[in-house]
Amino acid sequence: MTSLIIAEDHQALIDGIRSFLEYEEDIIVIGEANDGEMLIDLVRKKQPNVVLTDIRMPKCDGICATRTIKKEFPNTKIIAFSMFDQTEAIEQMKQAGASGYIMKNSSLKKVLEAIRIVAKNGTYYDNAITTTDTTSKEEIVLSTREKEILRLIGDGKTSQEIADLLFIGKSTVDTHRKNILKKINIHGKTDLIRFAVERKYNF
Fold first, then answer.
1. Vertex 197: Cα angle to 57 and 95 (nearest 5)
2. How far apart are CA 88 and CA 151, in angstroms?
3. What is the 3-state secondary structure (H, E, C) of the chain?
């Protein structure tokens, strides 16, 4: 019997996976978490065979959680479940110790297949993963501060929150945002947020 913990900040997605796996005799869902810290605590308490985890989660992201779990419980297998298909995100999860990577738009049958393969010490990487991102890292040269601000934008922080976190003025953050917009050649707050979220692990 394979024991499974699912970590995802959208409860409806957890419920859907749990319902799908309910009648599988070889898999039992023993816990669920909505953020990375909760996931780590749950793994420590229940020590599952397999963890299916999102990458972007509150408090502690999936990469950080995977690294911690694999350090403490090297025999626990981890599968990334994500909307990101950038090479950098995949490589960071591999380096953290993940044994699989599945896209969120994949079928639940594929999720089931991945769990079974990884539980038997195999690896599973979604064949839907492509490197379709047309803007390479070489084409966009951002300063260290701009990258820092872009990551925080990807975390949903406002200019004032970013200013407070980095101990700089809000006007300085706004200036950086304008410079980032020029460099990546997009217009508007919404497009910048979308870019920051999609590229969070790829700059």
1. 60
2. 14
3. CEEEEEECCCHHHHHHHHHHHCCCCCEEEEEEECCHHHHHHHHHHHCCCEEEECCCCCCCCHHHHHHHHHHHCCCCEEEEEECCCCHHHHHHHHHHCCCEEEECCCCHHHHHHHHHHHHCCCCEECCCCCCCCCCCHHHCCCCHHHHHHHHHHHCCCCHHHHHHHHCCCHHHHHHHHHHHHHHHCCCCHHHHHHHHHHCCCCC
CA distance 129 to 126: 6
pLDDT for the residue numbered 203: 45
Residue identified by tokens 């990551």 is 151
Task: Give the span between the Cα atoms of 62 and 60, in whole angstroms.
Answer: 7
Per-10-residue mean pLDDT of the chain, 203 residues long, equals 93 92 94 94 96 88 92 96 76 89 88 94 78 43 86 88 94 91 75 69 49
Distance set, CA 39 to CA 22, 62, 70, 153 (Å): 21, 9, 13, 24
And the tokens for 102?
Answer: 């599945």
The CA-CA-CA angle for residues 122, 119, 68, to 5°, reads 95
Spatial separation of the C-alpha atoms in residues 137 and 203, rounded to whole Å:
6
Q: How far apart are the first and last CA of the chain?
A: 40
